[in-house]
Design a protein that fits this description.
Layout (H helix, E strand, L loop, with lengths): L1 H5 L3 H16 L23 H10 L3 H15 L10 H23 L1
Length: 110
C-alpha cells in the first residue's frame, strides 16, 4: 500500500495541496441571493438625464440635430465627399445638448 501513495504523480499531489492552501488563504466568496424588491420600489431613482437631453435635442438644439441628420443621410446615400463622416455636425449638436441639459440637471439635483 505504501507504494500506491508514492506512485502518485507529483504535480497532482502538489496541485491538490496548493488548491487546499489557496482555499484556506483566499476563501471563496458567494453572492447573496436576491429576493427582489420587498416593497415594490427600486433602490435607485430613475435617471432623468436621457429625457432632459432628448428634450434639449428636440427643442433648443433642433437646428444642430437637423444638420447632423441631413449629413448622415447624405453620407449613407453615398452622396458625400470621400471620407466624410459628420463628426463636426455631431460635435456641434452634442455641445448644444450639453449646454442646454447641464443647468436643468443641476436644478433637479439641488
Amino acid at each position: 500500500m505504501a507504494n500506491e501513495v508514492t506512485d502518485q504523480k507529483p504535480e497532482v499531489a502538489s496541485s491538490s495541496l496548493f488548491s487546499s492552501f489557496m482555499s484556506f488563504v483566499l476563501p471563496t466568496a458567494h453572492a447573496e441571493a436576491d429576493d427582489g424588491d420587498k416593497d415594490g420600489k427600486d433602490d435607485e431613482p430613475e435617471d432623468i438625464a436621457p429625457a432632459i437631453r432628448e428634450g434639449c435635442e428636440a427643442n433648443e438644439c433642433a437646428k444642430y440635430a437637423h444638420h447632423f441628420q441631413a449629413c448622415q443621410e447624405k453620407v449613407e446615400a453615398g452622396k458625400g465627399w470621400q471620407g466624410e463622416d459628420c463628426v463636426d455636425e455631431m460635435f456641434h449638436m452634442m455641445h448644444c445638448v450639453d449646454a442646454c441639459a447641464a443647468p436643468k440637471l443641476f436644478k433637479k439635483l439641488a
